[in-house]
Amino acid sequence: MTDIELLTIAKKASEKSYSPYSKFAVGAALECKGGLVFTGCNIENGALGDTICAERTACVKAVSEGYTEFVRIAIYAESEGYCMPCGSCRQFLSEFDREGEMEVLCAKAGGRYVSHRLKELMPYTFNY
Length: 128
What we know:
By secondary structure, the protein is α+β, with helices and mostly antiparallel strands. The chain has helices spanning about 5-15, 55-65, 85-95, 120, and strands at about 25-30, 35-40, 70-75, 105, 115.
């Protein structure tokens, strides 16, 4: 699967976002080893601490189906800046990036994106 294909899936996932408070719809597409893709969107809640990000939604869906080996994740928002994962998502994803090779594609409006390794975005994790 190409970067553009994965980003297109993430963009489509953003359309399912429940974001009545921030009005900031985010979508994620998480690619597992073997090519299976799980999607997620951000789901907000009036109790803001109960809000879940698109990246963690996709990860939870994958893990709940028995998949824990991830290759990369694409994150999309219709925004001026690149949609980067928050600190909680970086830590959460790092739990499943034991090899330190997970790629993070961060997109913005207009189809532009950047690529990082998760370990670059979260160099010091709580993994033991």
